[in-house]
Amino acid sequence: MVDMSTQDHSPASSASSTPASPRRIVVITTGGTIACTTDRSGALTPTISGAELVAAVAQRYPEGMLELEVRELGMLDSSNLAFTDVDRILAAIHEVLDDDSVDGVVVTHGTDTMEETAMAADVFHADSRPVVFTGAQLPYDHPETDGPGNLFEAVTIASDASAQGIGVLIVFGHAVLPVRGATKWHTTDPLAFATNAPEEPVRPDPLPLAALAGSKVEIIPAYLGADGSQLDSTVAAGARGIVVEGLGSGNVSDEFAAAIDRAIAADVTVVMATRVPRGDVHAAYGGAGGGATLARHGVISAGCVHAPQARIILAAALAANVHPQTLF
């Protein structure tokens, strides 16, 4: 994680190094808290256009430094997104990058599911140019809103040549995070995202863009006394993949393990994540529900990736018809 608060990113400090031709950054806006204002009842609703969001930060750059373009995809609440919406966002990113004159992409997005959409973008991101996700914890009309600052820093990173070739990033609360392993760790703190990944997470080879819609992948939690009946029901409902949010380093009860075995026998791919905030999944324990036994039976480890991102990776593998193990 890079903390931008310790660095001088003011345009004035770099004015002397302003390139002869402006860097061209496209900002794709999708709604979220960054675009919200407060209605009479106190509820937040997205009302601010992409042009308004970008206008609030464009004036902070020296003239001729950047060319900012807005592509507005709508006013979406990220807690209400489905794979069809994610597919639209991914298609927009790829369409923008089809233009060789573009130097980077910024996507504004609600924080509730930002880590998932950004993970989907990373799985299919074969371009060296940066794609940066950002948003806000406070609405546009809040006196201490963090949206303009986050957007300014996201655009700054997207226009920096040093951000090329490292995959999709989340820039938020002065932090710069590779998306793999990133998670929203606080509901209200300005530093909304943290990471469970190593300092330099390994990115698997990206996939050709494929539609996620139609990939039925579910998350089933393990907990004290969980018997696996939810997993059986999910398989019966037609799931092609299941991510288990396991206990500890990736363990479940014996009954739950039996349900996993039944799922694998039914040709359902099972990935094991952990409900623990920090640390990787390790195939360490024996016994029917131990991680070592489950791995021998074909359960794939999610590594440092938590269940929501593991679901995205598994869905992408199924959509692209590649073995999921190659993406974890």
The level of helicity is: 25-40%
The dominant shape is elongated
- Structure annotation, total helices: 8
* Largest sheet, spatial ordering of strands: 1-9-8-7-6-2-5
Q: What integer value in Å does the Rg equal? A: 21 Å
Describe the largest sheet. Answer: 7 strands, mixed
Give the low-confidence spans. 5-19
Task: Note the run of SSEs as H and E.
Answer: EEEEHEHEHEHEEEEEHEHEHEH
Strand content: 15-25%
Helix/strand-derived category reads alpha/beta
Keywords: Hydrolase
Protein name: asparaginase
Biased composition (Low complexity): 10-22
EC number: 3.5.1.1
Question: What is the element layout, followed by pairings?
Answer:
Blueprint (H helix, E strand, L loop, with lengths): L1 E2 L19 E9 L4 E3 L5 E3 L3 H9 L7 E11 L6 H15 L6 E5 L5 H10 L7 E4 L12 H12 L10 E4 L2 E4 L3 E3 L8 E3 L21 E5 L7 H8 L4 E6 L7 H12 L3 E6 L16 H6 L3 E2 L5 H14 L8
Parallel strand pairs: 2-5, 2-6, 6-7, 7-8, 12-13, 13-14, 14-15
Antiparallel strand pairs: 1-9, 3-4, 8-9, 10-11
